[in-house]
Amino acid sequence: APVSPPAQHLFSDPAEIQALRRNLLAWYDKCKRDLPWRTLAATEPDADRRAYAVWVSEIMLQQTQVATVIDYYNRWMQKWPTLQALAQASLEEVNELWAGLGYYSRGKRLQEAAKKVVSELAGRMPRTAEDLQKLLPGVGRYTAGAIASISYGQATGIVDGNVIRVLCRLRCIGADSSSSAVTDCLWDMANAVVDRSRPGDFNQALMELGATVCVPKAPLCGECPVRKQCRARHRKLLGQPTPVPDVEDCGVGDCPLCPPAAEPWDSSLGVTNFPRKAAKKQPRSARTATCVLERRGCHGAPEYLIVQRPRSGLLAGLWEFPSLPVAQSLQEEKEREVLADHLQAWMGQPVAAEGLQLIGEVVHIFSHIHQTYVVYSLPLDGDVTWDSASSPSRWVTEEEFHASAVSTAMKKVL
Questions:
Q1: 302-308 and 319-320 strand pairing
Q2: Which residues are the active-site residues?
Q3: At a CB cut-off of 8 Å and minimum separation 6, what does 211 contact?
Q4: Which of 194, 213, 232 corresponds to the end of one domain?
Q5: What is the domain-level CATH number for residue 54?
Q6: pLDDT confidence of residue 404
Q7: pTM of the entire structure?
Q8: Structural domain for 352, as ranges
């Protein structure tokens, strides 16, 4: 049977929890960063509009740094200030604004959920974390908790990467932070410590602490408002625990929250011993032959043919230069031939393989794919017809290309 987490890893003392809440909120009120979604959420009197503002920010912030998100967020809220406005937008418009932010399915799911709120929920956002997660596509447990606590005042905790790091250090949780035992424990802990009167501010304070003070490397422990509650820091100050179990060493065999025996405490790392993460899976390698077809436009400026990707899968609905996945081991001569055949099939006119000029290679790292684009160029004298049944296409100038919903990878290709 699974071993229950020992009390040493949990927050069980009401006085300690109150001190944690008080110190963290006082620090947040004084030191929080001025971010546009916080300002909007704090000044917007309508709860649903607050929820929409928080929702957009949380979706954008997934896997993306704050500094990158700010400009995108401001442009988004200026273009679609309400959920109803977003529901009326086209996917093409959403992709154009999202271009360069990465993880493009996020924008698509956000718009799908907005349409569902308008068409099926009478324009009203669900008010609890449970309903938000159940009813809105693309809204997971964390996002639902953030919206519900910040916008509607529900006393529910949240767990994201920053919160994981803070809680693991506070309680010396050293097992793999992605394991079900640790995940369940962290959610229970977050729900137990969240401040009942200011849940949204408390949750944001936890995330802010992880983002600015309790950072992955070289944390600013001397500036931490909850350092007295931090058992990782206490352990660092005491050094390696003695064989006699104490508060820093739970002493329970097979503890699901302690570091594995094969990975003992490293005194040189201090609090950064926590959290422990599973070995990161290496991205798979992929190779794609890409052809930039170019012609002279009516005003003499070069124009490029772009085609739209399928509506599902990687980079769904975005525009790109005609491309074809190829085997890693394919030789250049054969690669030219298969790319020429691909172009000929969709253009309906002969394409000579020797007419394709090899320009070079572009490497782009997606979260799970190490992608290499082998870039070819093909100048054309006149117009060509692309088979619209396979994918829509259009000719664009360089300026129009950058204004289109194209990925960062395709901008590198150009």
A1: antiparallel
A2: 58
A3: 66, 162
A4: 213
A5: 1.10.340.30
A6: 92
A7: 0.82
A8: 284-412
